[in-house]
Inverse folding.
């Protein structure tokens, strides 16, 4: 699951017009919070137990095109939610 910014970049690399790429991404891309929550639960859950793992997850999510602010918020919310149980 790419972030909207990365999805747009990938479309541009395939030769899609910028305006069309932006329109497609706006229409189809889920909210970053939703995508990040999905990724944290499905792919990176086991890596969040220590600081080193969280740094690796942060870097991986940045490579997918998510902003640092969105990632920090998602990590904080996810860890807070997990600690409530």
């Amino acid at each position: 699951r790419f972030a909207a910014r990365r999805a747009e970049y990938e479309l541009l690399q395939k030769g899609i017009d910028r305006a069309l790429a932006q329109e497609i991404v706006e229409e189809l891309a889920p909210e970053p919070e939703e995508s990040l929550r999905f990724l944290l639960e499905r792919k990176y859950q086991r890596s969040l137990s220590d600081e080193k793992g969280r740094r690796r997850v942060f870097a991986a999510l940045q490579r997918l095109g998510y902003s640092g602010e969105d990632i920090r918020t998602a990590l904080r919310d996810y860890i807070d939610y997990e600690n409530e149980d």
Notes: The radius of gyration is 14 Å. Residues 42 and 72 are 18 Å apart (CA to CA). The chain is about 75% helix and 0% strand.
